[in-house]
Specification:
single chain, alpha+beta, Glutamine Phosphoribosylpyrophosphate, subunit 1, domain 1, five-stranded antiparallel sheet, four-stranded antiparallel sheet, about 30% strand, globular
Length: about 180
């Protein structure tokens, strides 16, 4: 029997007025079936000072989060450097190269997207949207930033709910963390 592709996740991060919020939905889809509705895809690392969310294979993401935590231990006050070191390791290690996941990382100063292709991207507007519903959530967040007075947490919650109404691989079981 062929393995069904796992599709899931919308991760969104927004910055506003000194606050950063990162949230994710809870849906995991196998083929055409919702396998889990309450998965937790966001984590606090570095004693709560760094927020991260993952999209893609959960096992791959956990392997990356473990390595990222080690990098944060090496560079405790430099999240950007820890992410860059993780991306270099991810890109050059023969085993890690096969991992299929993306990470969204945010601390008080920086928001970054990291992928297995070696990409480390800092969005100009501080909005990160990854996963199946990332483009929907990111678009909603952009509109809410421009046309509302909502804080970062409220924007993430609202935008993720919008994505959950549009993307079949996203639900409205949302968790959000803030710094």
């Amino acid at each position: 029997m062929a393995q069904l592709p796992a599709r899931s996740t919308t991760i969104l991060s927004v910055r506003r007025n000194g606050q950063v919020a990162l949230g994710g939905d809870g849906q995991v889809t196998l083929g055409q079936v919702v396998a889990k509705a309450d998965a937790v895809k966001i984590r606090r690392l570095a004693g709560g000072k760094v927020l991260t969310g993952f999209a893609g294979s959960a096992a791959d993401a956990f392997a990356l989060l473990e390595r990222f935590e080690k990098r944060l231990g090496e560079f405790p006050d430099n999240t950007r450097r820890a992410v860059i070191e993780l991306a270099k390791e991810w890109r050059t290690d023969r085993v890690l190269r096969r991992l299929e996941a993306m990470l969204a990382v945010a601390d008080q100063n920086v928001s970054l997207i990291v992928s297995g292709a070696g990409d480390v991207i800092e969005p100009t507007d501080g909005i990160i949207g990854i996963g199946s519903g990332g483009p929907y959530a990111g678009s909603a967040a952009k509109a809410l930033l421009q046309h509302s007075a909502l804080d970062a947490r409220q924007i993430v919650e609202s935008a993720l709910k919008i994505a959950g109404e549009l993307c079949i691989y996203t639900n409205t079981n949302i968790r959000v963390e803030t710094l």
